[in-house]
User: Fold these one by one.
Assistant:
Number 1:
Amino acid sequence: MKLHDPQPAPGSHRAPRRLGRGHGSGRGKTAGRGTKGQKSRAGGGIPAWFEGGQTPLHVRTPKLHGFKNRFRVEYAVLNLGRLTDAAAGTLITPDVLRHDQLLRDQKTRPMPVKILGTGDAPHGVTIHAHAFTRSALEKLSQAGSTAQLISWPDGAPIDFEPEAKPEPKSERKASSKRAAKPAPDDTEEDEPAEEAPGADDQPPSVEAPGAEEEAEASRSGESESES
């Protein structure tokens, strides 16, 4: 094998089209572009997204505003006002609500039940549901009824504590300020203030040895001179 023996695979390299090389080539004169028009001009052409003047697809398509949560839980809601006529001691479950046609049609798929707080609460009943609003829980407790939270889809009872109402911002700021301010400590006793050294507190002066003898000799000398 020599250097001129390797050849590309048949069909992998095609000869380019020869345009404008006479009638015999099949693409002479207009070179396959036709006569006149926008597409026959040099540098002319139509964008791929142009649709002849009608509203293009990217304008006709509705735009995405926000998003739709894939993990949202859709409930079949029911107001407390529709259960006002229930007798005391009645056990209300999702199956009872579906049997009495108090919930919307769920033939396509069953849905969890959520109790809303609109209307008056029934007295002395027990309600099993998959979710309760805070207002519904307050009204049921005031009416002496019981709200039991159950799981979805098995319907097992769940122990839960009602959520407390959030404090207003003004009260939260006041409580934070009170917590930040240190309380005075009554256990600490006031320490006595140090007194400034007075004249009485000065240390006694110490006389040098032999000072008294020198003073007596000077007095005796003065007396002799006077005489």
Note: The CA atoms of residues 60 and 73 lie 32 Å apart.
Number 2:
Amino acid sequence: MRGWVAAVTLGCSMLACATLYAYDAPDYKLLKALLPPAPGAALCFTRTYDKAHLKRHPHQRVTEMILSLRYVHLSDEDAILVATDDGGTVKQDFQYDFTLAAKTRDHGETLYASGDCASGEAIGCDVECDGGGIGIDPIAGKDGTILVTLERIRMSLGCADGPDVDLEGGVDDKVFKLAKASPSVCDAMEAEAFKNRQ
């Protein structure tokens, strides 16, 4: 969603200056179809690549991937201002968040990334400050299976003060087929990601 943003600065004074963000609103239809809005709604997807697969794809760096998607209701204070066709704004009281974990051949520790998602013609999830992101494409007729597309995403290496790592879509790291998993898989992954960022 970061890519849709245009800042609007309102009434500044010596004491305070409020900056609100107006978005050219994505319609969210694809995301809502994948994850219908509801309090606490979440989906988890994962794949661990076995030795046989990795032997057939020697250039694939990713050996395991876990993706968590969550629908988040926003308070009135945190609501996002969305631009309307008539030049005004309306408050959007929700967002879709993601957390991604990946293990690779060349790092001993798990890589983590997080941000938010939007959809128009396609579903995209971005890391703030030009950190890249991923695309999500549900496979028709395959309930619970998605394709994750990767060009570049900035991830952190295992801990809060660890170095950032750009995971890029190489020869065999452009598209990943993930299957729906138990929510407990993503709960454990997010707990570990949060702990590592303490």
Note: The first helix runs from residue 29 to 34.
Number 3:
Amino acid sequence: MMGAGKTTTGRLVAEKLGWEYLDSDAEVERTTGLTVPALFARDGEAAFRDAEADALRRACATPDAVVVAVAGGAVLRPENRSLLRASGRVIWLRARPETLAARVGDGAGRPLLDGDASAALISLDSVRRPYYAEVADETIDVDDLGPDEVAAQIVDREIRTSGDGRTSGADRESGESGISGASGTSGAGR
């Protein structure tokens, strides 16, 4: 979900593990040549979701160790949920809607939050939460944690899982966001 901390946490985790970092929204912007709000305005949400799915497929296909901050709405499509589950560990950065609302403010630059950002986040959360739970291998409640604390938890879990913080190309690391996977960082190729 927007405001969960996918981008900041994802960058920190990638840096600490020495992995590549990808943000699905940034990849959409890179490949379309449009900002997310401009793509929504010009072509609509369906076009954004198509570009988002393409970005997710490319990110999960990389053979390199990578942390992917997955846009929160990616879980709306069943094929994206299947891809996330198949690509590695998904870590859901879970936050209450009121926490998300405090973090995103008025929602400027976020097309789905036009108008009442708080009400929109409550509605989005009610739709997406079951999907995040479906794909998440692990969940970190981030309401009272800063990005450094969340990143440290993810890195500690990865080191415990792999033994040394390094993993083979056959494994995958995911976490959203949000999902992003869910609402948090998702990664491929660990």
Note: The mean pLDDT is 83.
Number 4:
Amino acid sequence: MLFNHLIQAQFNAGDIITLSVNDYCLIETNHAPVSLTLSSPVVGASVTQVSNSDMFLKISSITWWIFRRTVSAKISSGSVPAGTTLQLVAANCTTTNSGGRLGTTTGTINLSSTDQQILKSIGTCYTGTGYNDGYQLTYTWVPTTVAADYDLISATTSPVNITVVFTISTQGWN
């Protein structure tokens, strides 16, 4: 008698694959040069504020879904000349090459040697890698109080260099 049925055999093998996503955060600027010069456009007028919006801040963040991050800024070296204030404000993140929980801006700060928040409620996100991707930063240099402190403003013989440091931190539960 011949076999009327084909015998089929099936064997399985498997291995365990382990996947993990680490909590991390990276921060960088586009390193755009920022150069500000106070001057007066009209004879007899006080110096006017000057702004630069060429710098962008980029972030990559993976965090637990219950945690949020903040970004703060401070002057780490150098001093703003007397009678003047250096302000900083971050715009909302560009949306072309970004995604995730990008957080919100906190408004204009007067830069000092103390950390001050410029962004909050950042979760897992990325802001893009292009030169003009991320949070656009606007630096504005202004006379502090024109009527009261104007006589404190003094010409400089060479440019004053200031280093601004950005720090990304975990905010905690949110």
Note: Residues 46-149+163-173 form one domain.
